[in-house]
Amino acid sequence: MQYLLGIDIGTSSTKILLLDERGHIIDDVERLYDFEIPANGWTEQDPDLWWNAVREIIPEIIQKHNITGTDIKGIGIAGQMHSLVMLDADGDVLRKAILWNDQRTGKQVDKINEIVGADRHIELTSNPPLTGFTSPKILWVRENEPEIYEKCKKILLPKDYIRYRLTGEYVSDVSDASGMGLLNVKERTWSDEILKDLEIDKDLLPSLVESVEISGYVTKEIAQELGLAEGTPVVGGAGDNAAAAIGVGVIEEGTGFTTIGTSGVVFVHSSKPNTDAKGRVHTFCSAVPNEWHLMGVTLAAGSSLQWFRNRFCHEEMQEAEETGVDVYKIMDYKAAEIKEGSDKLLFLPYLSGERTPHLDPDARGVFFGLSTIHEKAHLIRAVLEGVAFSLNDCLSVLRELDVDAETMMLTGGGAASPLWQKIIADVFNCKMQTCKSNQGPSLGAAILAGVGSGVFKDLQDGCRKVVEVKRSVEPSENEYKAFYEIYKSVYQSLKENYKKLANI
After folding, report:
1. Rounded distance, CA 6 to CA 25, Å?
2. Is the pLDDT of residue 461 over 80?
3. Residue 469 confidence (pLDDT)
4. Which of 200, 237, 285, 440 has the greatest number of beta carbons closer than 10 A?
5. Dihedrals φ, ψ of 154, to 5°?
6. Calculated CA dihedral for residues 169, 241, 10, 220, nearest 10 degrees
């Protein structure tokens, strides 16, 4: 039997999945870790946490399933995007990685817009510069830690650091590189103009491959340490969302997925690099060679429901403890008793500001329309609907750009809610499906490894063997369109007051 490994370097854990040649998931092992907050709005992480997790998990999987290193035919890597890893001439880490959700680089983003020009940046990279992206982090280190920058010889993303440890190669793939703010996404190459404008040496950057291409081979030393075979191919892999798309079979025009995790993502595959001139959504290279994807982000999706649970659902949490039923199921049952529109109650899920389409860090959460008839169940349903409306904001921008999905997979923790599935199908007016496997990026990385190593004929073959639909939900006639129009206007009414509130 031939096997494949899919590695996912996440913010809170590393996951490694073992997949066999038939497309069956054999195992999925996770190691948890924390990130650091050295100052308000800063987030950092020691890259050794990722590598140590990989060093622990791979031998554990090999021994547990009584397989040999030669049985593993390929390795794929996925991971958190945008985070900055800096290495010296010896390949040693110079400082802790500055993570994707770090917000220290506001001044650097302003500087990039001033130097390059906001519109020109979108023309060159298909995206606006954002605090989460890698390029402003590079400028921040150069300005604030010049001694570190002077020693830096190579800049990598998290998954690419793991690739370096496995193979000794400095390589990234175009999907992950798309989120650095340095890639010409349309041409799938580094942007010489951006690099020149920002005075970043191109030699600092890794070479680029497509996600299914072999990027290097496991070295003899690492093979002996981990129980792998020397020369095991490691493919380009992908950024987390691009890899997750492969894991749910989103590889063709007219397909997409929506994730309800802590944040929410609406992701649609495209054969063309359509770009939003306003920068409201991302256009990135797909893990499918020479194709692209567009995606919008809702910052507080599942976390909105988690917030409401933690603050206001103590009775439900007690009931869950007594009955052994998940508290979210209990909340679901109660919300399902309320009719659509929550008796004219709307929720704006801007608890952490908002990304798409507003790019507004000052936005805040709102319950709009509260009256004496409303009970807790109304508020729960309003949260579910408000998140669906926010995700629909993302999809609406994609539809403006003629990028749409006839069928969309629903993933993440929120996908477990039948009520949320139905609400999103109705709000999107789109058929929603869930997968039997919900492993996300690690599964996509394993499929990519299968294609690159020849275990699978191509991505269609790999996805056909792996992806299995669990449930389909069709949209039905509903009144959400009217509520959604009001939802959109509430933000516009409050926009200026959000700024005033932030400045008090």
Report:
1. 11
2. yes
3. 92
4. 237
5. -155, 135
6. -30
* Residue 9: predicted pLDDT: 97
Q: Is 298 helix (H, G, I), strand (E, B) or coil?
A: strand
Decide: helix, strand or coil at residue 469: strand
Neighbours of 12 (CB within 10 A): 12
Q: Tell me which residue of 75, 59, 69, 102 sits closest to 9, measured CA to CA.
A: 75
Residues 89-103, mean pLDDT to the nearest whole number: 95
pLDDT at residue 262 in the model? 84
Q: What sign does the dihedral 119-123-127-131 (CA atoms) show?
A: negative
Rounded to whole angstroms, the Cα distance separating 210 from 208 reads 7
Q: What angle do CA 36, 42, 44 make, to 5 degrees?
A: 40
Say how far apart CA 223 and CA 217 lie, in whole Å: 10
Backbone phi, then psi, for 401, in 5-degree steps? -90, 15
Query: What's the predicted TM-score (pTM) here?
Result: 0.91
Question: Which residues, at least 6 apart from 150, have a Cβ–Cβ distance to it below 8 Å?
Answer: none
Q: What is the pLDDT of residues 336-379, one digit of tens each?
A: 999 999 999 999 999 989 989 998 889 999 999 999 999 999 99
Query: How long a stretch of residues is the chain?
Result: 504
Element (H, E) at 32: strand 25-32
pLDDT in tens, 118-164: 999 999 999 999 988 999 999 999 999 999 999 999 999 999 999 99
Residue 438 pLDDT > 80: no
Q: What is the pLDDT of residue 437?
A: 82
| Burial (CB count within 10 angstroms: exposed 0-12, middle 13-18, buried 19+), residue 470 | exposed
**Partner residues linked to 4 by β-bridges:** 19, 74
The token pair that represents 477 in the structure block: 């006639």
- 119 to each of 276, 395, 407, how far by Cα in Å? 11, 22, 33
Q: Is 240 an active-site residue? A: yes
Per-residue model confidence (pLDDT) at position 77: 98
The secondary element (H helix, E strand) that includes residue 433 is strand 431-435
Q: Which of 240, 276, 393, 426 is catalytic?
A: 240
SS3 content of the chain, % helix, strand, coil (to 5): 45, 20, 35
DSSP string, 235-257: E--EEHHHHHHHHTT--STTEEE
Using one digit for the tens of pLDDT, what is the confidence trace for 1-57? 999 999 999 988 999 999 999 999 999 999 999 999 999 889 999 999 999 999 999
Is residue 445 within 8 Å of residue 18, measured between CB atoms? Answer: no
**Please, is 486 exposed, middle or buried when counting C-beta atoms within 10 Å of its C-beta (0-12, 13-18, 19+)?**
middle
Distance CA 112, CA 117 (A): 7
Burial of 477 per CB tally in 10 Å (0-12, 13-18, 19+): exposed
State which amino acid sits at residue 310: N
Tokens of 84: 């900055």
Residue 444 identity: G
